[in-house]
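EI: anyone free to look at a 344-residue chain?
SC: sure, send it
EI:
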Amino acid sequence: MVKIGNITLPGFTLLLAPMEDVSDPPFRAVCKANGADLMFTEFISSEGLIRDAIKSKQKLDIFDYERPVGIQIFGGDEEAMALSAKIVDAVQPDLVDINFGCPVKKVVFKGAGAAVLKDVDLMVRLTDAVVRSTSLPVTVKTRLGWDDASINIMEVAERLQDVGIKALSIHGRTRSQMYKGEADWTWIGKVKENPRIQIPIFGNGDIDSPEKALEYKNRYGVDGIMIGRAAIGYPWIFNEIKYFLNTGQHLSPPTIEQRVEVIRQHLLRSVEWKGLIPGINEMRRHYTNYLKGLPNIKEYRLKLVTVKSVEEINDILNEIIKIYSGYQFERRMVEMNDLEYSCG
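SC: here you go
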């Protein structure tokens, strides 16, 4: 078993990465139903929380069926991070996660996310401010360093553990890499092997198949893996990995009926959480990924993104089932570079 403070997780934990504009409650719900062990909200600006910004406050929404779930915050000011941690504490998630990995310009230019990798002393002060301001376990997600010339993840891991974090998730790229190139897990393995490190270490980056999950588990000895892009439109990856780790066999790919059922669940949650029109509009970005691999599906995708009622969407989905019933899907390999998102 893996322990994060008072949270007990399976012996090899599968985490859903926090992804901006993706990891909302409807998406987390379908991932939880399909095997995710620990999930996080989209990252939330500490300054936004303090200003009571509507978008930031909405990201605090969590539900009991998601637990254990963490709320992720980011920022570059100690006082703002401490205050936002107190706000998060009042919502009672299972943990607070700090994002020191997001590489996108709008975050980095504010001195937050991956920008903090350039100043480990500041990173330590920010983390300490959060740890002191909450009764919840505090975890961190970060990258290897700012660039190849300044990889400092070993120092980061040791010093953040010393100020009280309970787990560390490491994306195997530098900030300068963004999401390009291959993630370097050798550094993640070195952190895990460091005798000074006693907290769980989770690896993140390029896990897109059960085979790779098993390979990296065995090669790098991590306590779990965090999956981001590979879960977009394919929440089944969590159960597929678990089944493969336990049996060495592959689950059959989800049928068209199973895919449509998850689309319906996702749509229902989206409408319930955001309201009818926003919920329908929000789902439009997901149809392409859910239906990927179906031949001549473009006509139906276009219909799905133009209709304005749940009834019409369900009618189109019923038509898709009728046409593609019995279609044999291949096991999915995610084209990682085709999917971009804001995350650590």
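EI: The chain is about 40% helix and 15% strand.
SC: 👍
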